[in-house]
Design a protein that fits this description.
Strand content: 5-15%
Structural class: mainly alpha
Number of strands: 12
Helix content: 55-70%
Distance between the termini: 52 Å
Low-confidence stretches: 250-281, 897-901, 970-984
């Protein structure tokens, strides 16, 4: 079978092999429509035939379910004299008034025929779609099931979860349990299994966009195949050195074994499934050329496959599609104006069929494509009316405004009720769903009269600022231009300045601020906030000294006013100026003071979130992980509690960066995935998301996936200054891929933007490291001029940022590489060991190994190389290990034979450095959350480490780990993380 499920396949082979050796058995295969039941049993047929067994296959037909023994007869005797004899007895039974005798005789004849076959050798019988079989065939299968215990008879049947027939349920329970009985449930494909199916259908690795779109199938193999075929014209396959080609030119998807009916072989016989290991033509990346939301609707025929549902269940499911991908039974009951118990009764069938799944709080459509098809089936006027009724019902029941807003958003023009509701619920909606708020408020403002329009436009301004999109500034500028009241103008000016700063347009932000301060500002607090904006804009525009002069009275005036928001913004402005002046510790002190001010009132929550992000970044620059983790933890909790989507995306991105530098790359990828899934449009976000993903995958030597990530960057990805500031990962990933392809000169060119001394480049966090990589790669190319320029640029950066350890380490590396000086590189190594970043540490050991090899110290070089590899193994940097081995191999240094290098399979020596740290904390009695906090890992990563530790130490409990640790190293052990606090 072509869709993974390796464990199931191996169990099937064992079952068939046992039958071939004369051991009888019974098998029930369950699964939803399209799960691959038929492909599964046909693989058993092929395996059994190859082992010399007699095989028979038949499928029950819904149109002949009333004909006695028809399903069994099609299986046992599809033609010939045996079939004619049974049919004659059945005709006799029909003619007789009491036809039981002839009917039983027909059944006896079939049973005796099976026994005769079994006397000659092993036999495999397969009855497909048992849920459709006639009662007489079910009775015969029960009789044969009893015989399987004493005959070399393998008896298999497949069934769907619906329709539920009592006689089928009982038969499956009897055959699938007890001695010799097995029941196999074909669950939906997992993510990797779906990716494998796509790989085999298209002959290429699925790119990120295609993989994400494949989730519409909900793990159903047949639906995945149908969707892939429908999208063929929008799938482009790119291979190294070849022109891209469209998906319709790729491998044929019809015979991939993904559905219930695999392609037939010659003469109409079941085709033998292609083995899972057959990856013919696999290579390159298959990616969608359109965003997922622009793909065509699912096939119109999709809902017609739900004919097994009762009419009430189908109607209820279609109404549920109006509520979106997930809903609660209570919401559906409100929309249908029915008691919840009736709705739950109608949802029982979709739940049993696997069309819906219970997530604990909601019911969710497991196959998003099915929901879209059910929704599209409703005529547009009916959808509009139903959406309007649903909005009224949800709002009347006090549901979340964001949930209610989904209905008028999808329902077209707003009626009077919707406009009134929006005016009342605007602020709550803005906090929860700013994008929905902007769209609805714009619609409503265009329909409202003058009195309502002013209130709606005020709310629209708040929503536009919260949305953080480029059009936000345009919208706020228009609202500001229309405002006449001085207080309203000042408030809109402040929001406009904020939006311009988010865009990175500091020149315009400064101009708007100066104009606003030149007008009368009735509120002293608002005037102070505008003055703080002027300080920020001046510092960003390259005038930090002038900005510092203005910041001092702003901080003093904030203290006099005693307003929490003013205090927080004043200290934020001062911290920003001090950062630009290179006074990092002073900047962090003002950040902490600003956070203290913000904690005094909920109106300062947004500023508190911004300051917490600045605090995390500041301590990150000082290599201080404990305060970084604390700041990000508080920021995430606050952002979730206040539904601040714009700030949450910043927090998630910073958390991902933090995990990346600590070597927990799985947690880093999970973090950028969460950030990427949030409804914001910050210009820097694609750069961070795709840059970090590409860099991780490049270091892991997943080159095609890394290239696919970089290809997803929009052409104007670096248009915003903030995007250029966070673009280091993109440049490093491009350089890595060029070096991996054997083009070091191209790798140098990719990193040349780091040589610029502009304000954005000077503050880029990765700049010092990029400069050190330029030195390494340029020297490899013999380009000493570029290497010397990079050393000089790194020296200027280190002097400007003298407080921070990172630039100093990078400068030592630059100078040590340029001179091949082991002394300087050893100093860089000492700093890298204090920083605790596995990738940087690996580079430091690798550089030292190369330098020592150049100086003829081969034993010391071999030792340093081993340390480099150990550091690279922590995050799984496979390419870096390969590069280090290659660099040292040319200098006559090898790590030894593969056998000598191979890590032990079990015992403490088998533990990786990361697993060893976790094991020591487990031995101290720490819980997984405590270990995660101590080592700054995700809970999932800790759980994975613990599972590996138990397996490698061959123990079953944490207590056994502690006992082994005590026996191995008696005496107290210093913990690798912060001390555990007192217990509850």
């Amino acid at each position: 079978m072509r869709v993974g499920r390796e464990q199931r396949r191996e169990e099937l082979r064992d079952w068939v092999r046992g039958g071939a050796r004369g051991r009888g058995g019974r098998l029930i295969v369950e699964g939803e429509p399209g799960a691959g039941r038929t492909a599964y049993v046909r693989e058993a047929l092929a395996e059994a035939a190859a082992l010399g067994c007699r095989v028979r296959y038949g499928a029950a037909d819904p149109f002949t379910a009333e004909l006695p023994l028809r399903a069994a007869l099609d299986c046992l005797h599809p033609g010939g004299a045996g079939r004619a004899a049974v049919i004659a007895l059945l005709r006799e039974a029909r003619r007789a008034e009491q036809g039981g005798g002839a009917g039983l005789a027909a059944m006896d004849l079939l049973v005796s025929g099976v026994e005769e076959w079994c006397a000659r050798g092993p036999l495999l019988l397969v009855l497909d779609d048992l849920h459709r079989a006639d009662p007489a065939s079910l009775l015969l299968w029960r009789r044969l099931g009893r015989s399987a215990d004493r005959l070399p008879l393998l008896l298999a049947a497949t069934r769907r979860p619906l329709p539920r027939r009592p006689e089928v349920e009982q038969l499956c329970a009897d055959l699938g349990t007890g001695p010799g009985g097995h029941t196999v449930r074909l669950e939906p494909l997992t993510g990797p299994e779906s990716a494998g199916a796509l790989r085999r259908m298209l002959g290429a690795e699925p790119g990120p966009r295609l993989w994400e779109a494949a989730r519409q199938a909900g793990g159903n193999p047949r639906l995945l195949r149908e969707l892939t075929a429908q999208w063929a014209g929008f799938i482009e396959i790119t291979r190294d050195g070849r022109e891209p080609r469209r998906g319709e030119d790729a491998k044929d998807t019809r015979g991939d074994g993904c559905g219930d009916r695999p392609a037939d072989g010659p003469g109409g016989r079941p085709g033998r499934p292609v083995p899972p290991g057959d990856d013919r033509e696999c290579g390159g990346v298959a990616e969608l050329t359109l965003p997922e939301e622009e793909l065509p609707d699912p096939p119109e025929s999709l809902p017609r496959g739900l004919g097994y549902l009762s009419r009430p269940a189908y109607t209820t499911l279609r109404h549920a599609a109006l509520l979106g991908p997930a809903f609660t039974p209570r919401e559906l009951a409100l929309v249908q104006a029915r008691p919840a118990r009736e709705v739950l009764a109608d949802l029982e069938e979709p739940l049993l069929a696997g069309l819906l799944e219970d997530t604990g709080e909601q019911l969710r459509f497991r196959q998003p494509a099915l929901r879209r098809a059910l929704y599209a089936e409703l005529p547009r006027p009916a959808r509009t009316a139903l959406h309007q009724e649903a909005a009224v019902a949800l709002a009347g029941a006090g549901r979340d405004p964001a949930r209610t807003a989904e209905q008028p958003l999808a329902g077209g023009a707003l009626d009077r009720w919707a406009v009134r509701w929006l005016a009342d619920a605007a602020q709550s909606l803005i906090a929860a769903a700013p994008a929905a708020a902007v769209e609805l408020l714009e619609r409503a403002a265009g329909q409202a009269d003058r009195a309502d329009r002013e209130a709606l436009e005020g709310s629209l301004a708040d929503a536009a600022l919260m949305l953080r999109r480029p059009e936000s500034a345009q919208l706020l500028a228009a609202l500001h231009g229309r405002a006449a009241d001085p207080g309203a103008r000042a408030a809109l000016a402040f929001k406009l300045v904020s939006a311009l700063m988010i865009e990175g347009d500091m020149a315009r932000a400064l101009a708007v601020t100066e104009d606003a301060l030149a007008e009368r500002v009735p509120s002293p607090a608002l005037r102070l906030r505008l003055e703080a904006c002027r300080v920020l804009a001046l510092a960003e525009r390259g005038c930090p000294a002038q900005a510092h002069v203005l910041a001092v009275p702003v901080v003093a005036e904030a203290a006099r006013l005693g307003d929490p928001l003013c205090g927080a913004e004043a200290h934020h402005a001062m911290a920003f100026v001090l950062f630009h002046l290179g006074r990092g510790r002073e900047s962090l002190r003002h950040v902490a003071e600003g956070i203290a001010w913000a904690r005094r009132g909920p109106e300062a929550n947004d500023m508190r979130l911004l300051l917490l992000a600045n605090q995390a970044e500041g301590h990150e620059r000082f290599d201080e992980p404990e305060p970084v983790a604390a700041a990000l933890r508080e920021a995430r909790e606050l952002a979730l509690a206040t539904r601040s989507t714009g700030r949450l995306v910043v927090t998630e991105a910073l958390q991902a960066e933090f995990h990346y530098r600590l070597g927990d790359w799985d947690a880093a990828l999970a973090g950028v995935a969460r950030a990427d899934g949030l409804p914001v449009s910050d210009g820097w976000l694609p750069v961070v998301v795709h840059g970090l993903r590409a860099l991780v995958r490049g270091h892991r030597d997943e080159r095609e996936a890394a290239r696919a990530e970089l290809a997803l960057l929009p052409p104007d990805a670096f248009a915003a200054p903030a995007a250029r500031r966070y673009g280091g990962h993109v440049l490093l990933a491009r350089a890595l891929l060029a070096e991996r392809a054997g083009r070091p000169a191209e790798a140098v060119r990719e990193l040349l933007p780091a040589l610029a001394d502009g304000p954005d480049e000077a503050r880029a966090y990765e700049r010092p490291w990029m400069l050190s990589e330029i030195v390494r790669l340029a020297l490899e190319c013999g380009d000493t001029a570029t290497a010397r320029a990079a050393v000089a640029a790194c020296g200027r950066t280190a002097a400007a940022l003298a407080e921070y350890p990172g630039p100093a380490l990078a400068l030592l590396r630059c100078e040590g590489l340029f001179a091949q000086d082991p002394r300087l590189l050893a100093q860089a190594l000492e700093r890298a060991e204090r920083g605790g970043r596995p990738l940087v540490l690996g580079h430091a050991w690798e550089d030292l190994a190369v330098a020592r090899a150049w100086h003829g110290e081969l034993a010391a070089a071999r030792s340093a190389l081993a340390h480099a590899v150990a550091a690279y193994e922590v995050p799984g940097a496979r390419w870096d290990i390969a590069r280090a081995d290659a660099r040292l191999r040319t200098l006559g240094v090898r790590r030894g034979s593969r056998a000598a290098r191979r890590r032990a399979a079990s015992g403490w020596e088998a533990l990786t450095p990361a697993e060893l740290k976790v094991a020591l904390l487990v031995a101290q009695g720490r819980s997984n959350p405590e270990i995660a906090s101590a080592l700054f890992l995700s809970a999932r990563t800790v759980q994975t480490h613990v599972s590996h530790i138990l397996a490698k130490l061959q123990v079953r409990s944490r207590a056994a780990v502690a006992a082994q640790a005590a026996a191995r190293r008696p005496g107290p052990q210093a913990p690798p993380g912060p001390a555990a606090g007192p217990g509850p």
